[in-house]
Predict the structure.
Amino acid sequence: MKKTPLILMILNGLVWGGLSWVGWKLMTAKEAQHLAGYPNTDQIGYFFAAPLLMLTASLVPVALLGQTKWSTIANCWGFLTLFAVLPYLVPYTGGV
């Protein structure tokens, strides 16, 4: 296996895995405060489920294609899923 898919897999795992871990901690912190209406399903979907889905979507194809003759597709897929973190993080900044 070439090293580039491994590097992209590690980066995707750290970024999307870290975002899903932070999202889980945000949800449990809101739940521990017993705030009315928090966490709602939209917050759970955005802060936890979306990064977890992207983690799966980024690691599985790269792991499967990285060991074949289609490692170029694996590199492109890994780069695109890593690049997708930028539009995801825009609401974290308040949209500015």
Summary: Residues 42 and 59 are 25 Å apart (CA to CA). The mean pLDDT is 86.
